[in-house]
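Here comes just one.
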Amino acid sequence: MPPNLKTFRALLLYGLLLALQAGSGLAESVERLQYQVSYRGAFSLGKDVPIADLVLQTRLPGGVAELGEARLEVSSSAYPLVEALYPIRYRFRSWNAPRDGGLIGFEDFEQTNRRRHRLYLRDRSALGVQHFDLERREGRSEMAQLDKGVRPDTAAPGGALLDRLGMLQWLRTLALHDQAEYSLPVTNGRERFVYRVRVEGSERLVLAGTMYPAWKLRFDGYQRDADGTEQIAHRSVFVWLSRSPGQAPLRAEARYPVGLFRIELRPGPGKGQVALAEP
């Protein structure tokens, strides 16, 4: 049987972003990268087994669009065994303010053995976001504005806050260096976290026979209980970012009791956007 969706989603959200957007009014895509998700563990008898495809696309503001957008979409449609046991369709879109990368809103869509479709918009509450159930036809006007790259009227500015996809996007804009550390406020729409991100060092990562200079980052999430004590929210997740301009995600890994999950850049047109030379 396949690993459960909660475990699978955790790696995807901490790991990479993807998008396939045919949005009118949005700027031209500036990045489109394709990945493969694999699993190795007890359910695969210790072998690496591909379980889903993932595409990364990022859009910048332009035209009538005032917001930046990244979109994560995952599908198991090319993998008959997964389709037979636990078909996966997942989409995550994140919108941010172009000036500072701050959270404006994010969409979370999931269809497996059930369907869920939600929108979260920034507000001034303690949680930091308000929630709309799109399956119940809530937030349709707000969603329409975001589709055009426009800040919804009901999205209120607040203090520093990111979603997990926006966190990765923000880190990609930084001048990373060995042993750098960052502490970031993050929400998943239901809870708030503090993420501590550390640059573990520089490595040479080999993908499909090609070597890429890369930064290895470690992500650790924490939640605060009632008395303010921090509790670990999940196991560490590791992400490798290219050291070329744009710092594209190359690989993400997370180990769970059921096994190792990996997302890895795969050969294709998008791969050529990642420079091969040492910076």
